[in-house]
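Researcher: I'd like a structural prediction for the single chain below. Treat it as a standalone chain; there are no partners to consider.
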Amino acid sequence: MTNGHLPRLARLVAEDRQFLKRIQRLHVDDGHFIYTAGLKHYGLSAFRPALGRLGEFRIKIGKQVPMQALSGTQPPHIKAAIIENLLFDESRLCSVELTSNRPNTIYATHPIVGELRDFRNLDFIVPVPYPTGWQLPKTLVFHDNAEQAGQASLYHTKRLPEDLQKNGLVMHYHGGMSKEYLTRVYEDFSKPDGNCRVLHTTDASRVLCLHCVSPRWLMSVIRDWTSGALRSLSSMGYLGMYRQRSNEVVGVGAARQARQSSSSCTSHG
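Model: Treating it as a single chain, here is the predicted structure.
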């Protein structure tokens, strides 16, 4: 409903039988959102409840219409939710799984010390002493909130030699900043030879290298990395996540080997 009225597509589905007959197939991209955003979890209401009602839409258009759910994130519990929600008959189900490995991606973990606000855990990004003539690799650090992003940016800036601290090598970026600032910093960081080498950000930017947030983001960020959606950093990069519960950093970086992961296509017709 939009302002109390059905959108045009909803009206066509509800009122125009000739329109329904023209629907030959139905594809659901990012099918994992049926589970993560369309269903209730931990006592909280669904973020996008319409995604949890696609089964009703399928009944409306007719279950004879072939349907496909695509996703780079289909562990067993999510795949089961997709099958149940979309009313798939498992005896007629075609499931295709392909690797999402990349030849230059590798996964690694290492312990952290204390809490996320202890930025000494990020010392490896800006080494001290700073090597003469060395250039920082492009690194994007994701944080849970803007305050943490700003504090980490200041921490890394102070680790630089004094003559480099005002050169814009380390910046921070979040949705509360002006459009002019965000555009300038983003464009500079996106250039291989740009001044900005380390960018601390919230989820407002998903170009990535280091992920420094809570576990709820790991699934989507690894999916984006392995799917090739985040390709603006063509050189060495890092993706990591601090997990307070297990006291470790989960990291993804450019390398020659990769742990196996997969993308899935679940089709029914």
